[in-house]
From TrEMBL:
Classification via InterPro entries: DC-UbP/UBTD2_N, DC-UbP/UBTD2_N_sf, UBTD1/2
Protein name, UniProt field: DC-UbP/UBTD2 N-terminal domain-containing protein
One family name in Pfam for this protein: UBD
Region named Disordered: 1-23
Length: 113
């Protein structure tokens, strides 16, 4: 139990989340193509191991702003190894790797219309 003047620990499970660095896809893609890639990843992610609940929390965090994403990963007990969420672990040590395309948009995204 801390005293009234102590500083609360704000990050119990690893690093504070940061916005992913800009990245470029191998070729320019549309938002629809990016969404399809993301959907395919999230549909197959639980098959790589780990817990479905952690995958669900990671998806929610990836789709949120940084503040909400931080709250989600902290609440789910996710240990963030890379601050951009590309590498995370659960409390049991299971590894969760997220590709950059589920976390941010590429610099060569084609905006339709």
């Amino acid at each position: 139990m801390g005293c009234a003047g102590s500083t609360p620990k704000t990050d119990d499970n690893g690093k504070k989340l940061k916005k992913p660095k800009p990245w470029k896809h191998t070729q320019a893609i549309t938002l629809a193509q990016l969404r399809q890639m993301r959907d395919e990843f999230w549909d197959t992610a639980p098959h790589y191991g780990g817990q479905k609940e952690i995958w669900d929390a990671l998806r929610a965090a990836a789709d949120s702003d940084l503040a909400l994403a931080q709250t989600i990963v902290d609440s789910a007990g996710i240990i963030v190894s890379n601050s951009d969420m590309t590498l995370c672990y659960d409390e049991r040590g299971a590894k969760y790797e997220l590709p950059k395309y589920v976390l941010s948009e590429p610099t060569n995204l084609i905006r339709e219309g």
